[in-house]
Design a protein that fits this description.
This protein has about 100 residues and is α+β, with helices and mostly antiparallel strands. It contains 3 helices and 5 strands; from the N terminus they run H-E-E-H-E-E-H-E. A hairpin with a 4-residue loop joins strand 1 and strand 2.
């Protein structure tokens, strides 16, 4: 997948397709509610997917919630199509693990 930075218009369009994800600078983020051990299992599932696609999120696991932050490091910490593809995959995996979307 190309790692060229997206334009502002493309970022706005991709965010509209990824409900729950918010932009914070050149990163997209999302919180999910899930108990700690369920979050660990979810992280393992996501990490395996990330390894296969060659792209990863920054992950912040707390006792009852988990936060994902995504940007493309090798595109100068800018948003690319790869970030939104990973966000879609995280959404699917989170749903499979019963994680509840949070506002932040």
């Amino acid at each position: 997948m190309a790692k060229d930075p997206l334009t502002e218009e493309e970022i706005t369009a991709r965010l509209a397709e990824r409900l729950g994800w918010v932009r914070q600078g050149d990163e997209i983020t999302r919180w999910f509610g899930i108990r700690y051990h369920g979050g660990v299992a979810m992280i393992v599932h996501i990490a395996d997917t990330e390894r296969l696609i060659g792209h990863h999120a920054d992950i912040d696991l707390r006792w009852d919630r988990i936060r994902f932050g995504i940007t493309t490091h090798d595109a100068g910490h800018r948003l690319t199509e790869a970030d939104f593809d990973l966000a879609a995959r995280i959404d699917q995996i989170a749903d499979a693990h019963g994680a509840q979307p949070l506002d932040g």
